[in-house]
Amino acid sequence: MVLIILILIIGISIGFFSAWVLKRENARQKISNDPDNRERGFKKINQERRRIKEERKEKIIRFMREKERITNDEVEEILDVSDSTATNYLDELEKEGKIVQKGRVGRNVFYIFR
Asked: CB-based contacts of 81: which residues, under 8 Å, 6+ apart?
């Protein structure tokens, strides 16, 4: 008798849990299938990415104010990013007219304020 009650309780619990999971999944699908919600989600993600990028570029500028120059390796280290990402940040700052590259290739390259 106790075993039957225990099995019923477990069965009912599994049923409620399954219904809850299905309800959540249906709600997620409605949100993800709504183009307006999806577009707002993408805009929010892109805004956050732009904010992070601007914060990182500002961190590079703050470092340069202290040291007066910066290398790609230093950007990699202070931002904990890859070589190509560091290069992209430095290229953007250069295009914005904030810094200028000195040296042509390799270890001789560094950046200073324009």
From this structure: 56, 75, 89
